[in-house]
Amino acid sequence: MTRDSRREWCVVDLLKTTAEYFALKEVDEPRLGAEMLLSHLFGENRLWLYLNHNRPVSDSELAVFREFCRQRLDGRPVQYITGEQYFYGKPFMVDERVLIPRPETELLVEHAAGLLSAGRELNPEGEYRLLDIGTGSGCIAVTLASLLPFLQLAAIDRSAPALDVARANAMRHGMLSRIDFLEADLFDPELASRCAGPFDMIVSNPPYIPETEWEELQPEVRRFEPRDALVTPGGTASYLAICRASSELLKPEGLLCLEIHADAAMQVCALMESEKFRDISVLKDYAGFDRIVSGRLGA
What we know:
Blueprint: H1 11-24, H2 30-42, H3 46-51, H4 59-73, H5 78-82, E1 84-87, E2 90-93, H6 103-122, E3 128-133, H7 139-147, E4 151-157, H8 160-172, E5 179-183, H9 191-194, E6 199-204, E7 209-210, H10 219-224, E8 231-232, H11 237-249, E9 250-259, H12 265-274, E10 277-284, E11 290-297
Parallel strand pairs: 3-4, 3-6, 4-5, 6-9, 7-8
Antiparallel strand pairs: 1-2, 9-11, 10-11
């Protein structure tokens, strides 16, 4: 957005001009980005912008908005500028300490919740415990806790700063008493003894981008999102570590649900089979790519 100190701006004009300027500069999703930044400026939702399209924008508001736009033009993701991303209908605090939750991960939550709910119907008085490995922002654990009141959860991450974000999100949504957060590395050979199992289910959206694909990712992902939460040697190291630890962490017949790289379904299924999982299934995402693999540990 170019500077014009003489112009009096209103919401609709500022929105239109910003979206056009973002498009000219080849910023991803220019209209959506402009809407999110402008609604954040006013502390309102995007619908409010259209219901208040003639509202004047003050000079002080304009100065703040220009700074938002400068950051976006520099490639910083909108979610890190606003400090928020919606996941499964709930707002989650995000910043450079954690990955930005993606819509595909909502499928992992939905699938896991369905499996746990089915188990609950068969055993309504049972105690159900879940472990979220690599919790990041806590979006998976917090969402599952809110969906399934009968569930007790543990969530681990090797990043202490990420756990601070996850705890803040759990507190925001009233789930802090339901989730035990622990700093732990999924590659730690003593992981099982540290996590106080056994669990009925393990869920994870682990690092799964092969190092060879790092340079192919969007520049804003490479520059701003935490690399350690994205990349793993060969792309399958995280899956192997989780599958091996699961035999000690899960109850007999316990469930494992993993978000996967779109090209990794066969490899992950083979790893799970080698670690005595059965009833293995693959779920596709909205774009038709393999995205979720789940299975049950053999008794």
